[in-house]
Design brief:
The protein has about 240 residues and is of the alpha/beta class. The protein has 8 helices and 11 strands. The model has no long low-confidence stretch (mean pLDDT about 95).
């Protein structure tokens, strides 16, 4: 557990190994025990490469309440793990919301980030959350400060808060150039019903990096957790690691 200044603690798992290390950032209401996080850990540690996974505040085994979280707060959590639990250059692998947070990390710690992999990376998704929200959801946001959105991925609903929506614009990425110049690989399913597949093209267009690969998986969904998807992720990760050595 990594103590935070406000009394919260972040759960993480770190395996030492060769540099560059790999740091996995989970998605919204996901945690470090997910299929991709564990499969990538198994592959990287088999190669004796450093690997770190963690839970944001209010997720998984970390302390705190999910409803108090924002993109700004969860980005700070990820930066704390990077700064205090890893050493040397890192390849950031971000899934969905973790892709947004990973891009923020690459902007804020360019000297530490040697590469970025986005799995259905979802920068600025709070805008789409509000635009797609039904009238009863918007009414709950206005009256209660949150809406319980049914989730197709979990029995638990997604808790969307006014705090999350209000904070989103402070972290927007797609309203101008993204000044990230490390190698980037974006993996995106074209059957993704949570993140439009063209988002990956918007990201690559905005990035200032000249080394950007976009892999569109025609039958891929949002999770991209099939064995073939996992293999693609592992190969992409090790390719960026080899570029950074």
């Amino acid at each position: 557990m990594l103590p935070r200044p406000d009394g919260q603690s972040l759960a993480y798992h770190h395996t030492a190994g060769f540099s560059p290390g790999v740091l996995f950032c989970p998605g919204f209401m996901s945690d470090m025990e997910g299929t991709k996080a564990l499969a990538l850990e198994k592959a990287m540690t088999a190669l004796h490469r450093g690997y770190t996974r963690f839970d944001y505040m209010g997720h998984g085994l970390s302390t705190g309440n999910f409803i108090d979280g924002t993109i700004s707060r969860w980005t700070d959590d990820a930066l704390a793990i990077l700064d205090e639990c890893t050493a040397g250059p890192q390849i950031i692998v971000g899934s969905s919301m973790g892709g947004w947070i990973g891009l923020r990390m690459a902007l804020l710690r360019p000297e530490r980030i040697a590469g970025f992999i986005g799995i259905a990376a979802a920068p600025d998704f709070t805008t789409r959350m509000w635009e797609d929200m039904p009238p009863e959801g918007k009414a709950d946001i206005q009256n209660k400060g949150y809406w319980e959105q049914p989730s197709e991925y979990s029995e638990e609903p997604y808790i969307i808060t006014r705090k999350l929506l209000d904070d989103g614009p402070r972290n927007f990425m797609l309203n101008g150039p993204i000044d990230v110049n490390c190698p980037v690989h974006l993996i995106q399913g074209m059957q993704d019903d949570s993140v439009p597949w063209k988002t990956a093209l918007d990201i690559q267009e905005a990035l200032t990096s000249e080394d950007v690969t976009v892999s569109l998986i025609k039958n891929g969904d949002h999770r991209l957790s099939t064995s073939d998807n996992i293999t693609s992720l592992i190969l992409a990760t090790e390719r960026l690691c080899s570029l950074a050595q």
